[in-house]
Design a protein that fits this description.
144 residues; 7 helices; 62% helix; two-stranded antiparallel sheet; globular; mainly alpha
């Protein structure tokens, strides 16, 4: 099933992100919740295009297609992406902070992502997971 880009392209031209606001269940802070965490997040797209415009366009189209698949919700896809980051990391910096922020924008809490990292200790390696906890401080601020 192909993702329909007509709405995305129209919003991109008009500058309207089509973002709805919803509570993430922690501290009653309002965070955006996207129907498609890639196609609806213009800040993310700008960051990708900042690497290289062709790279940004390619990533937006390809990842947007994957994030548009209907059976797995956006928050779960964000968790999967973080788990893959833990396993694939060569350094804790890089795309992981972007993916943690994507999860936050889908309503994920710091506690949920911390639990995911603890789970990944078993399957991805303790040292790899341990190195990722500092990324949470970048996105959510220092742990309390």
């Amino acid at each position: 099933m192909a993702t329909d880009y007509s709405e995305f392209n129209a919003r991109k031209r008009s500058g309207n992100g089509g973002v709805s606001s919803s509570s993430n269940g922690s501290n009653n802070q309002s965070v955006p919740k996207y129907r498609n965490a890639v196609l609806d997040d213009y800040e993310l797209q700008a960051g990708l295009s900042g690497v290289n415009p062709k790279f940004g366009d390619f990533c937006t189209r390809v990842a947007g297609e994957a994030w548009g698949l209907p059976l797995i919700d956006q928050k779960t896809k964000a968790f999967i992406t973080i788990a893959v980051d833990v396993v694939n990391q060569e350094r804790p910096a890089g795309p992981m902070a972007v993916h943690v922020d994507m999860a936050r924008k889908q309503g994920a809490t710091r506690a949920e992502i911390e639990e995911l990292l603890l789970f990944m200790c078993v399957y991805g390696g303790f040292n790899k997971a341990a190195a990722c906890f500092s990324v949470l401080d970048e996105v959510f601020g220092p742990a309390k």
